[in-house]
Amino acid sequence: MKAAQEKQHLERVMRRYERYDLLIIDELGYLPITADEAKLLFQLINGRYERKSTIITTNVPLSSWGTVLHSTATAEAILDRLVYHSHVIKIKGKSYRLASVNP
Questions:
Q1: Which ranges of the sequence are coiled-coil (predicted)?
Q2: Confidence of residue 103 (pLDDT cuts 50, 70, 90)
Q3: 63 and 69 Cβ atoms separated by less than 8 Å
Q4: 0.70 exceeded by pTM
């Protein structure tokens, strides 16, 4: 989305992501996110809000999203839209992938 914004194609890219019935964002927060990228994420989530389904996987606790997204206000706005009409599933335990490496 950031590259699309720099090339003046953001609106077209947002429309494309907003039309999918299900969008999966995997490992949110695994790689660093800039404040500008967090704002783009908000725009995407807001555009899909109450219209399409979104799944986000992350190891970042919800209480730490403000730090990861560089803004408590942005994190709260995103989470407000994500958790409304949603199911939050917490998976606890050791990594399934690492279990095969360390028997």
A1: none
A2: low
A3: no
A4: yes
